[in-house]
Amino acid sequence: MSLVEETYQQAIAAMTPAERLRRMHGMLHRARDLYARQLREKLGDVSEERLKWEVALRCYAGDRRARSLIERKLRDVQS
């Protein structure tokens, strides 16, 4: 393990559960914001509702059942 990884692991281990949850929450929001920006560039001017479901599709791409539900919602939003 590198010095950076070791330092990071120590910092995480020193956090309270609430601090770790806040950090995870912030990371999740940053990831979703990044997906949304990338999708806006790719899709252009789409509704917030469609953008929300497009982001969800990327977030849950590995979950077959979730993808099926999200794709159904996307069909509803696009029609």
Short account of what is shown:
The chain has 79 residues and is mainly alpha-helical. 84% of the residues lie in helices and 0% in strands.
Question: What are its keywords?
Answer:
single chain, 84% helix, mainly alpha, 4 helices, 79 residues, elongated
Report on this model:
The structure is a single chain. This protein has helices at 3-14, 17-43, 48-59, 64-78. By secondary structure, the protein is an all-alpha fold. Helix 3 runs antiparallel to helix 4. It is elongated. It starts with a helix and ends with a helix. The relative contact order is 0.08. The model has no long low-confidence stretch (mean pLDDT 95).
How many structural domains?
Answer: 1
* Biggest beta sheet summary: none
Low-confidence stretches: none
Q: Give me the secondary-structure category.
A: mainly alpha
- The number of helical runs is 4
Query: Average pLDDT, to the nearest integer?
Result: 95
**Number of strand elements:** 0
Describe the global form. Answer: elongated
Helical content (DSSP H or I, runs of 4+): over 70%
Task: Summarize the helices and strands and which ones pair or pack.
Layout (H helix, E strand, L loop, with lengths): L2 H12 L2 H27 L4 H12 L4 H15 L1
